[in-house]
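Most newcomers find our protein records easier to grasp once they have seen one. To make this concrete, we reproduce a full record directly below:

===
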Amino acid sequence: MQVSDEMGIAAEKTVQVVHDGATPIVELAANDGCEGVFVNIDTSQSKRQPVLSAQAAIEISTHAETDVFVRKLVPGSNTVQRILLAVGGGPHSALATKAARALAIAHDAQVDITHIYPEDAATDLGEETAILQQAEETLSGIELFETGLLPSNSAADKVVDRSQKYDVTVLGAPTADLLRQLVFGTAANECENARAANAAFMAQQHPKKEQR
């Protein structure tokens, strides 16, 4: 509530005692007609069981009839100076770009935009260039340090590797296993996977909104 008060945003607080963190949130969002769900997951090595686990966040993103935003917190991730925005041609990229813009404004941070394309792609990269340009237009007025196309036959590997240099990586809802690890951590122990050590922010646009 303190954050919403500081930002001048009207907010209501609801406290529920539950055993399953995902289902009540999905039901509450549906009953209240919410247009979005924002989920924080903590991958620190705290012995205290987190209120929302990575698995709960996955279930919410799977079943919620709204846009879903998942922020993976890591120790020392409060400072945001450099943001990596990974864009693509998928349905969630535009929402991820808007989320990156909001983060950049809130933290006065710079954004690097990258789009990964197959190494054996045709020499005409018009479609790939258009994806970058669309993101740049959405981020108009934001400090863009670097934008570029990167060739790789494993987009997930490339994004995960590049993410190590940034305070937070923003991307549309991933399907590749490595990118899901970047956001959610590993199922067995999120903290043991070094490749999932950085903060990440995932945006998932609900299909009904794509049709508007």
Remarks:
- The longest strand covers residues 110-117.
